[in-house]
Specification:
Layout (H helix, E strand, L loop, with lengths): L1 H23 L22 E6 L4 H15 L3 H4 E5 L4 E11 L10 E14 L2 E11 L21 H25 L10
Antiparallel strand pairs: 1-5, 2-3, 3-4, 4-5
């Protein structure tokens, strides 16, 4: 009876491994990686910029904080500090990345990428920085390693992960800029 059980388990797990191997064969293996901004000093990917916006330092800070709380799910988990005296916001954000679709159109998770979002405000302008981007692992794994095609652990999936990371950063910057540049409607106190 034990022999039958072991044979069944071996067949079950063996066929599962075979089906996993078959799904990998249909995946795209070549991707065009976008040019990502590298900081000259730190040599890390860093999306940073300064944008003009009408309003006082406090107004811009308030708009950005409102955006942060509506843009991210569970914003209290992601918000590290909101300094209403020095008008700075710091966030620590995570998002899922995915492996390329297999031949059956199935996308599997590739892990979690995390980054720091830093915002500063002055009258008429604000500064943003998306930096310290890393792949969540047991130890710190900077995504700049994904760019090294000579690394013995390199896989073409890393290019796909870089594309997703670039898309995430650009989407955040676009949404943030639109929200901070848009003045809040004045509330009518007549009631």
């Amino acid at each position: 009876m034990k022999t039958v059980r072991y044979a069944f388990l071996l067949f079950f797990f063996g066929s599962g491994l075979l089906s996993i191997a078959q799904t990998k064969t249909g995946q795209q293996t070549s991707f065009t990686v976008p040019k990502m901004p590298i900081d000259n000093e730190t040599k890390l990917i860093n999306y940073q910029g300064i944008a003009e916006a009408s309003g006082t330092q406090k107004e811009l800070y308030t708009r950005a904080l409102s955006w942060f709380n509506s843009y991210y799910k569970n914003p209290s988990e992601k918000l590290r500090s909101a300094d209403s005296v020095n008008y700075k916001i710091e966030g620590f954000i995570r998002f899922k990345i995915y492996n390329p679709e297999n031949k059956d159109g199935l996308k599997t998770e590739g892990g979690v990428v995390q980054y720091s979002l830093l915002l500063d405000f002055k009258d008429g302008k604000f500064r943003y920085s998306i930096t310290n981007i890393n792949w969540k692992q047991t130890s710190y794994y900077a995504i700049e390693k994904w760019m090294d095609k000579n690394d013995k652990y390199y896989t073409p999936f890393f290019d796909y992960y870089l594309i997703q990371t670039d898309d995430e950063a650009k989407a955040v910057i676009k949404a943030l800029s639109a929200a901070v540049k848009k003045p809040q409607p004045k509330k009518d106190d007549n009631w």
